[in-house]
Amino acid sequence: MNINKTLSFSFYIRITMVISIISLLLFNGFNSYKIASLNSKVNERQNEASWFVYQLIKEYANLTTQLRLEPIEIKKLNLSYDLTWSRYDILLNSKVSKSYFKEKKYNLFFQREFDKFKYLEKSLKLIERGAIKKDLVIKEFMLNYSRLIEFTNSNLRIASPILTQNQVNISHLIVIQNITIISTTILSLALLFLITNDLLTKSRWKIKDTMTNCYNRMSLFDFLTHDEKNNNSEFCIVALKITNLKDINRRFGFNHGDEILIRVANKINSIIEQEQRTKKPMTFRLTEKTFIILKENEDIKHDNSFIRSFDEKAFLSDTELIPEVSLITLSNIPKNKIIESLSLLDIR
Where do transmembrane segments lie in this chain (predicted)? Predict the structure, then answer.
């Protein structure tokens, strides 16, 4: 039951983490798209508005050139003025550039300059009639042109409120994106840890009894048949059988029987841990009620001391439900004879 709960809990954790990772990846993708969209939107609007300004400057420069020509060509001068006038009109009324400059609050400057430019049309008429000196008109146009150049260099190319605001927004999005990347990495590492832990747990369940944490019967036979180490060694075998386990289960319930098994296994493991040898004995749960302890023979005197550790009175002194224990010991058993020796014991 505990194993099933553990597996179920671990499964739901993994599912939750997978969903979280997928959600973070989708959010990260949306975030990247939004950043790209903002950059594209800002670049498109700024490029179009800037292009209109540069076209205005180009036509204005051509107009000032026409004013300086000697002799002045009135038709070309008027055409240049009309083209410059139309550039102002496009810049102020085009949908993209109009909204762009309005948000930047630059539309007032261009509208004011356009009004001054329209006022200078009267001066061109006076030049055509010869009623005013050309140098005075050139000076007025050059003042307007200089203000336009200065404003463009100081604001349009260097400062852009919309660009600045969008850069702030993009910076925030990048911070969020970095957080999602870090979160995704942490979740991925945690998921990798859970998967690795599950694999190790499943591997451990294959070789160990889940209730008592002792090696299971499969591990015993694998050790005896496939493990080539200690092939020439002799072993001391301790077979410990709880003879009244079935009666305990019947009278007090399986929970009490399981508790007895766990306590017996813990007692065996505590005795083994007290062994001051590098080669610790190995404990196997061979059947429902039988434990097998294998220990390499090193000297008979020490083996007898080890066996006495399992004396019934000392071994079961701290249990509430006293089980009946049958203890069988064999010494100097070669490894290749252990299976045969176990089959001769009454341990079923």
Answer: 12-30, 174-196
The tokens describing 292, both together, are 């097998």
3-state secondary structure of 336: helix
- pLDDT > 70: percent of the chain: 72
For the record, the structure tokens of 338 come out as 């252990």
How far lies 61's CA from each of 48, 97, 133, 232, in Å? 20, 21, 20, 104
Task: Tell whether pTM > 0.90.
Answer: no
**Listing from the earlier edge strand, what are the strands of the sheet with 290-296?**
282-285, 290-296, 234-242, 325-334
CA distances (Å), origin 115, targets 138, 144, 307: 17, 11, 112
Q: What is the amino acid identity at position 22?
A: I
Q: How far apart are CA 284 and CA 327, in angstroms?
A: 15
Q: What residue spans of 208-293 are helical by DSSP H?
A: 217-225, 245-252, 254-273
How far is the C-alpha of 348 from the C-alpha of 340, rounded, in Å?
14
Question: Residue 238 forms beta bridges with which residues?
Answer: 293, 329
DSSP state of 294: E
Backbone φ and ψ for 282, nearest 5 degrees, come out as: -110, 135
Q: What is the C-alpha to C-alpha distance for residues 7 and 5, in angstroms, rounded to an integer?
A: 5
Count of H helices and E strands in the chain? Answer: 13, 4
241 in helix, strand or coil?
A: strand
Contact between residue 240 and residue 269 where contact means Cβ atoms under 8 Å apart: no
Count of other CB atoms within 10 angstroms of residue 41? 12
CA proximity to 238, closest of 114, 137, 338, 329: 329
Which two three-digit tokens encode residue 344? 């001769």
Band (pLDDT 50/70/90 cuts) for residue 2 is very low
pLDDT band at 85 (very low <50, low <70, confident <90, very high): very high
Compute the distance between CA of residue 325 and CA of residue 313 in angstroms, rounded to an integer.
10
Q: What is the DSSP letter of 337?
A: G
Separation between Cα atoms, residue 198 and residue 168, nearest integer Å: 45
Handedness of CA 107, 113, 115, 118 (dihedral sign): negative
